[in-house]
Amino acid sequence: MSTMKYDAAFIEKPGELGLTQEDITSLLNQLNGDEVYPIEIENYVGYSSAMGFITTTAAKNINFEYDDRSDFGNYIAYILSDTENESPDETYKIQGLNVLITK
Fold first, then answer.
1. Do residues 90 and 6 touch, judged by C-beta distance below 8 A?
2. Contact (Cβ atoms closer than 8 angstroms) between residue 50 and residue 3
3. What is the radius of gyration, based on Cα positions, of the chain?
4. Beta bridge partners of 40
5. What is the DSSP letter of 99?
6. What pLDDT, on a 0 to 100 scale, did the predictor assign at position 68?
7. Which end of the chain offers a freer environment for a tag, N or C, measured as fewer CB atoms within 10 Å?
8. For the segment 32-65, what is each residue's pLDDT rounded down to a tens digit?
């Protein structure tokens, strides 16, 4: 497992499923901060969503603009919308933030 810590971490889940306790613990362990905001960003085509957390510091760095109408949210939705948009190592640099999106 990677020792890199992220500013935001997500798991892509089908729309009808939520996060398990194990999912939440895993996501929180991937973050570089102890205080977070929960986020859910839907896929453009609507079959799944990215559920996870962003650190408070990262949220401040992007002026708290991380919902699905923001540049940050739109980029995540773009990644979810097509497997061709996915990074092989599941890591992304979005608006200067290190982001993890797993399945």
1. no
2. no
3. 12
4. 51
5. E
6. 80
7. N
8. 989 999 999 988 777 899 999 999 999 999 999 9
How far is C-alpha 91 from the chain's CA centre?
10
Residue 14 makes CB contacts below 8 A (sequence gap 6+) with 47, 48
Instruction: Kindly state the DSSP code that residue 29 receives in the 8-state scheme.
Output: H
CB 42 within 8 A of CB 6: no
**What pairs with residue 59 in β-bridges?**
none
Owner of token pair 């979005």: 94
For residue 57, give every residue at least 6 positions away whose Cβ sits within 8 Å of its Cβ, in sequence order, or none: 7, 33
Alpha helices in the chain (DSSP H): 21-30, 56-61, 71-81
